[in-house]
Amino acid sequence: MAGRPERVAVRGEREVSLALAYTQTPRRKAFDRIVIAGPDAHGVATLAARLIVLHARGEEPQPVAKFPDTTPRAAAETFARIAEQYEAVRGTEVLDIPVNVQAPAAFIEALAKLPSPVRFYDHHETSIPFVEQMQEKGIVPIITADSVQMAVALQLNSNDKAWELAKIGIVADRDPAILKVEDRLRVESHLLPLANRLDVLVRNPKLVNAEDQAGLARMLAEYGPALLEQSNVEYPPERLVYDVKVNEVGDVAVLADFTGLDPARTSMWVPKTMEQLALRHYKDIVIAVVPGFNPRTKTVEGYDVRVIKYWLSEYPLSAEQLARDVIERMAPQGRVVGHENYVSIRFSTVDEAKRIAREIYRRAEGRVSSAAHLVNDELVAMSVRRDYEKILDLLERIAKALEKGAAAKEEQVGLLRELYERDERTRYD
């Protein structure tokens, strides 16, 4: 009997300590599903469309999208935090966040610790080599050939509002696969302006009172494309395109100069402004000289020759092919960045950059002399074909003028003069 109070005291202390520990241990929040997306316009639009589809099924998913937290480089740490904070009955979906190729093992390890099952949806080729490693960790990778196929895999085409948002996201990603499901006229006249507004909003969600990119996705899921249609946000490239100096406009290319613009204000919008130049002039290729602005040091560290191929162009050569010899010369010095249809090459002086830009422009136009080094026969053939198509067009117009009789004499003379001048120029080139 003497020991009983002591045992009760021990038991009581244990009960108190367990209760205290329970109240002090953070409890994980439970959701039907966790949906994590990249923070760019394509990722946010895809996330919003997926939320619509899941809501239609009666689910309450938890969306996660934030810059820079859900970029490939920072994703592993973000996945770890989510694994500690959330539970999900139906698991986790990761949308449009490619594997971090700089640290793939850590990325996949963190991915595997998310509430299971984990489904990984992506369309980037860089994720393909890691499919087997993901499968070994119990992850289900769904990596598609393009953005349209990824949207279909997510069943975004099962709901009209979701499908429209998905298409806006695909256009924001500049994926030509959009032409599988939309005609080019509607893409350029309707979807592209909305995608451009979304591009502005994902950079600053607070413009529509959203806390972050996930908050913006929630708003898009609620209001649909109307949120973008009724938004009065300004897309800077639509204004900047009129400030850029255009040196020459050819049959397929535009030669431009950005050196007169404030690089601190415009550098982030250079590629999209070049795209606007292509749209404005109805051309396939834009070559530009651009100050090599470093946003970290806020200084110009050289001059870039940038070459962009308009994303819906059917021009047979890529930006990379047009600049291939320059790329091969400058790449060993670490002065080349970009991809197949957008290339940036750094030079020390503006004069050298302007000279190379004009050289690439003439190559795109097929005006490089047949004696030039690395001349591309296909470029010459395209140039000749364009010239003769224009000559045939002139001959047809002359024939129609002749049908009008003597009253059209002056028009005939003008057309014949134009034909003569074009023939002289063709032979010179």
Features:
inorganic pyrophosphatase (n-terminal core), 16% strand, disordered C terminus, Diaminopimelate Epimerase, Chain A, domain 1, six-stranded mixed β-sheet, 49% helix, alpha/beta, 429 residues, disordered N terminus, 18 helices, single chain, 3 domains, five-stranded parallel β-sheet
- Output the radius of gyration: 29 Å
CATH architecture descriptor of the largest domain: Alpha-Beta Complex
**CATH class label of the largest domain:** Alpha Beta
- Tally of separate helices: 18
Overall average residue pLDDT: 87
Q: In what order do the strands lie side by side in the largest sheet? A: 8-9-10-11-13-12
Sketch the major β-sheet: 6 strands, mixed
- Strand content is 15-25%
Kindly report how far apart the N and C termini lie. Answer: 114 Å
- Give the tally of structural domains: 3
The helix content, as a percent range, equals 40-55%
Q: What is the total tally of β strands?
A: 13
CATH topology group of the largest domain:
inorganic pyrophosphatase (n-terminal core)
Shape: globular
Low-pLDDT residue spans: 1-11, 369-375, 424-429
| Structural category | alpha/beta
